[in-house]
Amino acid sequence: MINDYYIYIMTNRKNGVLYTGVTNNLRRRVQEYKEKIKRGTFTSKYNLDQLVYFEIYNDPENAIIREKQIKGGSRQDKINLIEKDNSEWKDLSDDF
């Protein structure tokens, strides 16, 4: 887990608002969203507290490139990514 970088997608419900981000500490970041630590942010405004997708990278540059690729894709591209491995849109942070 040390030196890992994560691309992730958060949502508020199945087929709801989607947010894509990158972090080096996925557990902490998801907890911040769930506890709404940073008020007034996009994630707190839309109550994005469910982790529905993530990828792990060893290199921060590759993680950022991938984040931009996902963000640049269509909403349907993001839904396809999520549903490929998480068809029920389960909150993956429950497994932490």
From TrEMBL:
Pfam families: GIY-YIG (PF01541). Gene3D superfamilies: GIY-YIG endonuclease. SMART domains: GIYc. Coiled coil: none annotated. Residues 3-81 form the GIY-YIG domain. Belongs to the UPF0213 family. This is GIY-YIG domain-containing protein.
